[in-house]
Predict the 3D structure of the following.
Amino acid sequence: MIRYLRFILAIPLLLIGMACSTNPTVANGGDPELEVKARQALQTLYDTTPRSKELQAKMKAVVVFPDIVKAGFLVGAQGGKGVMFGPDGTILGYYRARGASYGLQAGAQTFSEAMFLMTDAAITSLTSGTGLSVGVGPSVVVVDAGTAKSMTTTTMQSDVFAIIFGQQGLMAGLGIQGQRIVKFEDQ
């Protein structure tokens, strides 16, 4: 039984360890590979979800996480690195997303996430020292790429729209989940 419990706790600890690895900062030149992957992921979203172009036209900034890894068995964790782009495509910062979950769940998957920041308050919340916690602060609407196709201008009234896309792998379950996003320099 102890061996089984160690296995359950090992998955989230491995993900947290990966997320805590050495990360680039804007001060030391950023991460060109991460930037390229983020731009490619965002272009894939625009190509596959035309409604995301409407968000692009109204956004103040977008944070793109090209590869978020999520795994768990009862207890789960997720983590990934991303880039914030301004409306003109300039890099505004580098961010890390971390999350934890608990409940009936099992599996592993990777996915991409684009968070369209629609208000100055959303940007301020994200760039503050504490970062952005999904579920606390500005209102966040989380949708997958399929649901995003049916969004209309009347439903686009939130501070942040997070679109999940490019899922690979299998993760099933029902549980409580949270996500926190912080700048690399704030680690």
